[in-house]
Amino acid sequence: MYAPVAIEIGLFSITAAILQGINKQKLTILSLSLGILLKIFINIPLIEVYQAEGVIISTAISYLFSIIINLLGIKYYSGYRFKVVFRRCLLIITFTIIMSTAVLTTDTILSLFINEKSRGGSVFRIVMDVTIGLIIYFYLSVRSNLFVRLFGESKITYLRNKGIMDRHKN
To answer: Which of 23, 33, 68, 129 sees the fewest Cβ atoms within 10 Å?
Structure first.
C-alpha cells in the first residue's frame, strides 16, 4: 500500500524540478497547495471508511492530483509531448507483467519440490526466481530495443565485447 505513494513522492519531486528548470516554480507551489487542500477535504471521510489505510489513500490521491497539475503545466509551458514516455512506460509495464507471470509460475513449480521452510530451499527459490525474471526482462528489453533507447548503444556494445550478448543480434 505504501509503495505507490513512494513512487508518487518521487514523481512529484521530478515534476517539481522540471517546473523549476523552466522557471515555473510558482506552479509547483500552487499544485502542492491544492494537493494539501484536497487531502484536508478527503482525509477524514477516507479514514472513516478505510481506517488507517484511508490516510494512505488520501495521500496517494492528493499527490496524484498535484502531479497531474505539474504535468499539465510542463506540457503547457514547455510544449513537451508525453506520447513517447507513455509508450515506453506501457512497454515496461507489459514486460513487467510477462516477467511476473513467469516468476510466479517458476516459484509455484519450485514450491512443489523445494521446502520453503528451510533456509537453503528458500535461498535457492529466490535465486532461481530472480534469475528467471532477470533473463526474461533483459531478453524482452533487448529484443524490443527498449534497452538501447533507455541506456544507449554503448551499453549493448559493452555487453557484446564482454561476450554476454551475441554479436550478430540485437
So the answer is: 23
* Contact yes or no for 132/103 (Cβ under 8 A): yes
> Does residue 62 contact residue 12 with C-beta atoms inside 8 Å?
no
Side chain identity at residue 48, one-letter code: E
Which pTM value belongs to this model?
0.69
Q: Give, in degrees to the nearest 5, the angle at Cα 84 between 79 and 87.
A: 140
Cα distances (angstroms) measured from residue 120 to each of 55, 113, 125, 130: 39, 13, 9, 15
CA–CA dist 71, 21 (Å, integer): 14
Does the structure show a pLDDT above 60 at 170? no
Return the axis-axis angle of helices 25-50 and 3-21, rounded to nearest 10°: 160
What span, in angstroms and rounded, lies between the C-alpha atoms of 163 and 169? 13
Model confidence band, residue 142 (pLDDT cutoffs 50, 70, 90): confident
Q: Kindly state the cell numbers that stand for 117.
A: 521452510
Regarding predicted confidence, which is higher, 36 or 2?
A: 36
**Span 81-85, mean pLDDT?**
87
* Torsion angle in degrees (nearest 10) through CA of 150, 153, 156, 160: 180
